[in-house]
Amino acid sequence: EVFLPEETRAAAPVDFLQELPSYQSALRRRAAAAGTQERRGAPLGSAGLRGAEARGLEQEGGEPPARPVREYPLSIAEKRRLRDCQQADRKYLSGWKQWKRASSKSLKKALNEVKELSSYLELWRHDIHSIEGKFGTGIQSYFSFLRFLVLLNFIIFILMFSFVTLPSVISKYGIFNSSFAKIPPKNIEPHCTVYKPSGNKGLVYFYTYLKDLLSGTGFLEVTSLFYGYYTIDAAWLSILRYNLPLAYLLATFAYLALSLLWIIKRSVEGFKQNLVHDEDQFQSYCNKVFAGWDFCITDPNAARLKHRSLQYELQTDLEEERLKRKIADRTMKEKLRIYSLRIFINIIVIAVLSGCFYSIYRATVFSQENSNDVNNMNFQANLLVQYLPSMVITLANFIAPQIFSFLIRFEDYSPAFEIRLTLMRCVFVRLANIGVLLFSLWSHISYCATDKCKACGYNYELYPCWESEVGQEMYKLMIFDFIIILSVTLFVDFPRKLLVTHCSCKPVQWCGLQEFGIPDNVLEIIYGQTICWIGTFFSPLLPAIATIKYFIIFYIKKISLIHTRKPAARPIRASSSNFFFLVVLLIGLILAFIPLGISIAYIPSSKACGPFRSFNTSWAVVPDTVLGFPTGLQQVLYGIASEAFAVPFFVIICLVMFYFIALAGAHKRVVEQLREQLAMVRCDLLLCSPKFS
């Protein structure tokens, strides 16, 4: 028999927990509630005591209850008794407190009804719930993420349309007795202001309209879709003056800030869940065994898939533990061999990336030099030349991930790290390809070999309105990306489904259906969203096209998932996947900041088109607007922008950041102590059980 001394059983963790302020406060409120019940002479059995505790915990000082009675963990009889006690308490409250409690209850009820009604108006609510029931929360997270991008692009479109497009259209057509003003650029050479859009005139063939629709040239170039349309400097609505250049720049900053804040807000919850899941291997194992089942699944095939998924996750954990032991037992010779192999493979990866980047650069240069030579090419050749950079980028996005997936097998990483590293390489190649395209364009835009060109600050002969040219490239990338997604579904997935269903050949059955890979599909739409963020400054209505594109893609992917593809055999958790999606989306947004910042603050704006033709750069409209403010306000703004304000502000921000870091560290240590004490209590309970006696 094992006997524990009394000092051991009176565990220290209990004393520590009882010293917490929250526990002492709960004791005081419980005693106050019990005293009130005794004064009224009500019997207090076990149910009455728990009801008194609930009332004591829910109110203090006559405040309204924090939650309804139905939310307490009590039986029906206890809840009824608690409700009667609460109703009896109202007699002792003043009229003001009774009105306050009733109004608070009515407000909560109204808010709950509004929230419930708004849930029925949620986009694709039934479709996403159906997908969740058949295929689990992992695939459901992808479609929820797609819905988020649809809403984000729609709000960006509303923002740009309301503050940029609508005032321009209203003033140009004289609606609501409005007018506009065009201020000619000052101190600018006349040849810099020449811009003749390639609009269609006279008799035009149908295929010309088709080419213009696919490439953004011709009749689309002179519409409100592109930057060159917004050439007015001010719009007059009655007696109000609307500064369009300033509104254009502020709307750009607004949609970038809105996207950043919304992504951060959504990623906080995913970060917390991801932190909990990845914190402890033993806790992760317990979560898989006792809480790993997805109770939203109703389809038998999805249930079998979930069984295999849990089995795969447990096998992955065991494999990672085996690899950790193997890494610990490696000799110096083995370490030297594996590190040399990894260095060699990373050199190959860099070579593949360099090849992709150089191919995109050469394709862009060739396309820009020959796309304007319409007379010597037919319709198909001209369209091919204009879409050459988009096709090379799409080909690089397809080939490079296949090479990375093959090379990662030889680097001897753990399965989880293999997936993360491959995905990060794929993210880099997709997003960096856009950067190389823009760099290729800007190298041509900024190249000046003559004095006339240097007077303008950019290559005015090839790019009289270079912002519209960049907008057309972003437009072509988005259209071509949508064509590829649609073509893969129609001409690859459906024929493969028919072959697997109706052909019993062993090679066909061995290939099987294409898996619905969640990370690959997410990278696909994040690539398109990055294009939208960059292109919105050069094409203000591009978010509307992105909204329609993602709206159609939702149904394409839904049909593909249900009819032509199968869920991946190695799915990922919804919590970790949501966080990963948002992190990659945040990387794409940060990448979009760089080219937009260079375009706004560094590259000279076009002098022949756009709202900034009277300024050297797009950013120059800000100091020009500040000069029109009163002197006192100017001094305040200049003081905020000076080093005398920036340095102390930065120091204060650093101190606040260090404070929160220290606070987080203290909380982490307290949590670790509480875990250790809970483990001690568990050991004491095990030792005190009859099995050990």
From TrEMBL:
TMC domain sequence ranges: 465-575
Chain spans, region Disordered: 27-70
Domain of life assignment: Eukaryota
Lineage of origin: Eukaryota, Metazoa, Chordata, Craniata, Vertebrata
GO cellular component, one term: plasma membrane
Pfam families tied to this protein: TMC (PF07810)
Record bears the keyword Repeat: no
Keyword Membrane recorded: yes
One function term, GO molecular function aspect: mechanosensitive monoatomic ion channel activity
Protein name: Transmembrane channel-like protein
Major location category of this protein: membrane
Transmembrane segments: 148-170, 246-264, 339-361, 387-410, 422-442, 579-603, 645-666
Keywords: Membrane, Transmembrane, Transmembrane helix
Organism from which the protein derives: Herpetotheres cachinnans (Laughing falcon)
Protein location: Membrane
Membrane topology: Multi-pass membrane protein
Signal peptide: none
Family: Belongs to the TMC family.
